[in-house]
Amino acid sequence: MEDSDYVKQLYEPARRRYREKITAHIGYDPYQLKKSDFSRDLSDLPAVEEMDITSYLVLHTSYYTASQMKAYKSLEAFNYLVRGWVNDLGTKEALNKCRLVFARVSVNYLYLLTSK
Fold it and tell me: Structurally, how many domains does the chain consist of?
């Protein structure tokens, strides 16, 4: 398999680690996928329950201090979805029947300028 442009720009130690990780966990380089490689079927999305949403969008437990904190970055990602900036959503099966979810997002430059 030929390296993607992303892999080619990495330094050799990082390139080796990247190859090891995608071989062990994903099975393919996500940077080489085409739009047609993704499933658009909503039933392929991972099952999500109420607790998953609360845990991801509202509260987050720090791995370092074990204390709970607000997940502001997750809430920001949710706002991108609500504002309609997520244009395309697709899934692709990885190793061990896991599914990766990919999104194509457009950036609203006016929001970037006013949020600083």
Answer: 2
Query: Are 90 and 46 in contact, with CB atoms under 8 Å apart?
Result: no
pLDDT in tens, 5-38: 999 999 999 999 999 999 998 999 989 988 899 9
Say if pTM beats, i.e. exceeds, 0.85.
no
Instruction: Give bridge partners of residue 88 from the DSSP assignment.
Output: 104
Tokens 């030929």 — which residue?
A: 2
Q: Which residues of the chain carry a pLDDT beneath 70? A: 1, 56-75, 107-116
- The answer to whether residues 10 and 53 belong to one domain is no
Residues 54 and 105 in one domain: yes
